[in-house]
Amino acid sequence: MVDVQGTVADGFEPVRDAFAANFARHGERGAAVVLYREGEKIVDLWGGTKTPDNDGDNSPEASGDGPGPWAQDTAQIVRSVTKGVAAAVPLLLHQRGQLDLDGRVSTYWPEFKAAGKERVLVRHLLAHRTGVPVLDTPLTPAEAIDGISGPRAVAAQQPVWEPGTAHGYHAQTYSWLLGELVRRVTGRTIGRWIAEEIARPLGLDLWLGLPEEQRGRVGRIAAVEALSAPAVQGPRLRPKRSVAEAYRDPESLTRRAFAAITPLPDENDPAYLAAELPASGGVATAEALARFYAALIGPLPSARTARSGGRLFAPATLTMARTEESAGPDRVLVVGTRFGLGYMLHGPACPLLGPGSFGHPGRGGSLAFADPEARIGFAYVTNGMRRGVTADPRAQALVRAVRTSLAAREA
């Protein structure tokens, strides 16, 4: 029986029950869930082990400070949840008048116009419409994090569909597309920008490029299953073709998109954690992610910033973030998906709290999002990585519990 730590506000006990049940029903290893409402934290739960004991390597060198229980300040690599944090950067640059979302990417990054990409717009990049979800020559793990090979590869890559005419999840290439665009516009790496303009002012334990001195706080992920079929729920692109089938096909966009880094990097490797990969390499606590999303939609009374009382998005920016840009058959994930500008939107493939929710899941389980109508910022992080891209059963159990709690309070 896992000892669940933390607190919940009156009326949100179903969230605690669902969190505890995840350990019994879904094989949870170590995890945390945090909920903000109207800028105040009302759920803060954690439990399990920081370092699962069945993945074959529990040495202090591999897992920070060695085996131990998950603590309130345990951080975790959150994979594609990072995309939602990174997407705030171009939106905030646009809000500050430094980036035109309807401008061409090549205006800021001239080399990018090669191979038929001269008409790609910044908004295409954010909405997974660029047509560059794959690389003809995958990068090695070392090349993926060197800051040079990735941008050079996506700039040279020929699109696999005409940019702007369709969408497909840029699972790995999003890192180099977005990271290089931000560097060209600001002169700073995206990790540094997030640290200086978001994490530090809001007091977030969130890093894109983990400092060495923070390594001991990071939970070690459990052994990842062989990449055979990233499961995604939702309406299928073709009635007889599943995501599993697409992934087994070495020529499919599904397989090639996830294999843009080959072989798969070791996500517990300190070098990988220190890299700045905005598609997949963020490290954060559940507290930091929930607080981040809460700050997107409303002020945080305790934020250490003078900007809008701790609120990140102006109303117009919030509207842009969650306005549908891409919907329907996803060329990579096979099922139907919905995207705003950098954020997944509520739908069958990515069930969130309600129609107005926006955020991002991470392959393997983690999830973070905001719901402006419910005034909610939500985050769940885990080190028990399951096969799947979206709609993880543990995360969905927690979302349903939040929905139940809100409904009961309004009854």
Automatic annotation (TrEMBL):
Specify where the region named Disordered lies, as residue ranges.
Answer: 46-70
Q: In this record, what's one Pfam family?
A: Beta-lactamase
Q: Which SUPFAM superfamilies does this UniProt record tie to the protein? A: beta-lactamase/transpeptidase-like (SSF56601)
Concerning InterPro entries, the annotation shows: Beta-lactam-related (IPR001466), Beta-lactam/transpept-like (IPR012338), Beta-lactamase/esterase (IPR052907)
Span of domain Beta-lactamase-related: 17-398
Q: Where are the transmembrane segments?
A: none
Name it. Answer: Beta-lactamase family protein
